[in-house]
Amino acid sequence: MLPYIRDWVERKVRRHLAKARKQKGFGWKQWSNSWLYDTLKLFNGYRASAAEVKAAPT
User: Fold this and answer.
1) In this structure, is residue 56 part of a structural domain?
2) CB contact at 8 A, 34 and 11
3) Could you read off the pLDDT of 11-41 as tens digits, one per residue?
4) What is the number of domains present in the chain?
5) Is 14 inside any structural domain?
6) In terms of Cα–Cα distance, which of 9, 6, 45, 41 is closest to 26?
7) N- to C-terminal Cα distance for the chain?
8) What pLDDT does 5 receive?
């Protein structure tokens, strides 16, 4: 998976948590990445795969 998608999901989750606590920001200092993935069980097993080549270039 592309890293920017994983970062986007992290920002969405962090922003939701901060708003639920009526706080400003994203909570970068409040919640570590390991806490998000271990406690909240965010999916972290993304694998990027290259597209299969159908024909050789000439």
Assistant:
1) no
2) no
3) 999 999 999 999 999 999 999 999 999 999 9
4) 1
5) yes
6) 9
7) 30
8) 85
Helices (H), ranges, the chain: 3-20, 33-39
Domain span holding position 23: 3-39
Instruction: Tell me if 57 is assigned to some domain.
Output: no
User: In this structure, which amino acid lies at residue 51?
Assistant: A
**What's the CA gap between 51 and 39, in Å, rounded?**
34
Angle in degrees, CA 22, 7, 48, rounded to 5? 150
d(CA 58, CA 53): 13
Q: For residue 58, is it within any domain?
A: no
Q: Residue 1 — very low, low, confident or very high, per pLDDT cuts 50/70/90?
A: low
